[in-house]
Amino acid sequence: MSAYIKMINLFPEIKDQIERVLRSDVLQKNADVELQQRALEYFKLAEMAQGDMLATVLEEMPPFPERESSILAKLKKKKPAAAKVIEEQATEEKKTPKAVPAPVMATDQPPAPVKSSTDLLVDVFGGPAEPTPTPVEQPSGNFGQAAPPVSNILDGDIFGVTSTPAPQNGFGGEPQMASAEEITDHLPKFFTKNQGLLYESEIVQIGIKMEFHKSLSRVQLFYGNKMPSQSINTFSATMASTSELQVQEQKAASNEIKQQVQEVQIFQIQCLQDFTDQPVLTVTGFGGMSGFNLKIKIPLFITKFGDVAAMDQATFFDRWRKLNKPEQESSSTFTATKPIIKENAVNLLKSSGLSVLEGIDPNAENHVAATIINTKSSIIGVLIRLEPNIPSNMYRLTVRTSIPNTNGTICEFLQSQL
Questions:
Q1: Which range (131-140, 213-222, 241-250, 274-283) has the least confidence?
Q2: 400, 323 in Cβ contact below 8 A?
Q3: CA atoms of 308 and 354, how far apart (whole Å)
Q4: Radius of gyration for the alpha carbons in the chain, expressed in angstroms and rounded
Q5: Mean pLDDT, to the nearest integer, of 213-242?
Q6: Is residue 58 within 8 Å of residue 45, measured between CB atoms?
Q7: Could you tell me if 379 and 372 are in contact, meaning their C-beta atoms sit under 8 angstroms apart?
Q8: How would residue 178 be classed by pLDDT, with cut points 50, 70 and 90?
Q9: What's the CA dihedral at 170, 171, 172, 178 to 10 degrees?
Q10: Contacts of 75 (CB under 8 A, 6+ apart)
Q11: How wide is the angle at C-alpha 417 spanned by C-alphas 413 and 418, nearest 5°?
Q12: How far apart are CA 275 and CA 375, in angstroms?
């Protein structure tokens, strides 16, 4: 169950399915009282948590300092001398190196050869290595002199060449930043929803949740480290404003994401005027030796800044006739990607931020929708007619707007979904 509540935090798009599991009779009415109580607690936490509250509750517990033995503390009070001896013995055990093997006598069996640096590589990386021939020791002519000390394979420059300090990453080289990768495949699915997964790899997972009010949008970004034993270092996530969208960071993400931990970043974006290009989120960082450099388009569409627009038949067609300039209309006739079903078209228009107006069009098979888009500089009225031709599985889509060019953007978006 702990895994389930963490999945709600990491994957908000599956919150409903997990809540159904937590409130099921199998858990809520379980004979095990502890299991029943924990299921109820987690369900209420998921149901009531707003914003980044859930992420805060599920944050990793900080490491606690090592506690002193209570027995040793009592001994210090009663017999300080004895406690001091015990502490000194423990310290000596930590400092004392492993016992040195006894010298080999002539009658003893020859000791097993010490593993060379090549043997160490075999142990570490699991691959076979070619055996290194053991050099034959030549007798020294200077019998009265002590033999030179043997160098440890881990100490100094054993080959007579100035050694280079080992890289801190431990893989034989500095981590390299990858070339910029543009991420756009996620855009179509976000035309009809406001939260979900933007990007995922073996290192990092990036999710988004968007909320809209008038010309403002609150964008929460979730960065999860998927690596089980390494942190993501030098992490950075930035988003720049454009001439149409003003971006302001409200909460920054940390420059280090611990293993199996999620960071939250919050932006406020204001729509200044009609736009077609989405803002770009630049995400960089290193996971071990692997660097990533992502250019992710934030799935903002002009229709997401729309408000409900209710009107009757006379009002709709009166406004429709007034929007008669060529630059105020876009129309397209195209073949549907799936068999035409009326309910599916209605759901698509609604989930796109449009108000579907029932009983407006004289032809009951046609769909009529409207919205009022809010920007800082103006308010844009949008009227839509969608006319299906079921026998030929085709649509005729017409979009009229009070401001030129917006109609073309909306028409293109809707056609891509239909």
A1: 131-140
A2: yes
A3: 7
A4: 34
A5: 90
A6: no
A7: yes
A8: low
A9: -120
A10: 82, 83, 86
A11: 115
A12: 10
Residues 6+ apart with CB under 8 A from 106: none
Average pLDDT, the chain: 77
pLDDT, tens digit, 9 for 90 and up, residues 219-228: 999 999 888 8
Q: Is 0.70 surpassed by the pTM of this model? A: no
Give the CB-side neighbour count of residue 278, counting CA atoms within 13 A: 20
Q: Give the tokens for residue 223.
A: 């960065």
Residues in the chain: 418
Write the DSSP assignment of 40-80 as a string of letters.
Answer: HHHHHHHHH--TTHHHHHTPPPPPPPPPPPHHHHHHHHH-H
Amino acid at 300: L
- pLDDT > 70: what percent of the chain? 73
d(CA 224, CA 59): 12
- Across 51-189, the runs of DSSP E, i.e. the strands, are 181-183
- Residues paired with 266 in a beta bridge: 220, 251
DSSP string, 371-412: EEEE-SS-EEEEEEEEEEETTTTEEEEEEEESSTTHHHHHHH
β-pairing, 329-335 vs 394-401, is: antiparallel
Tokens of 103: 């010298």
Which amino acid makes up residue 197?
L
Q: What is the DSSP letter of 361?
A: S
- pLDDT 10s digits, 1-34: 788 878 877 777 788 888 888 888 887 777 888 8
CA distances from 49 to 17, 42, 59, 100, 368 (A): 16, 10, 14, 60, 37
- DSSP class of residue 265 equals E
Residues 6+ apart with CB under 8 A from 147: 140
Buried b (16+ CB within 10 A) or exposed e, 346-367: eebbeebbbbbbeebbeeeeeb
Phi-psi map region of 328: left, alpha, beta (phi>0 left; psi -120 to 50 alpha): alpha
- Rounded CA gap, 367 and 356, in Å? 7
Q: Which domains does the chain have, with CATH numbers?
A: 2-50 (no CATH), 181-300 (2.60.40.1230), 304-417 (3.30.310.10)
Q: What is the pLDDT of residue 121?
A: 37
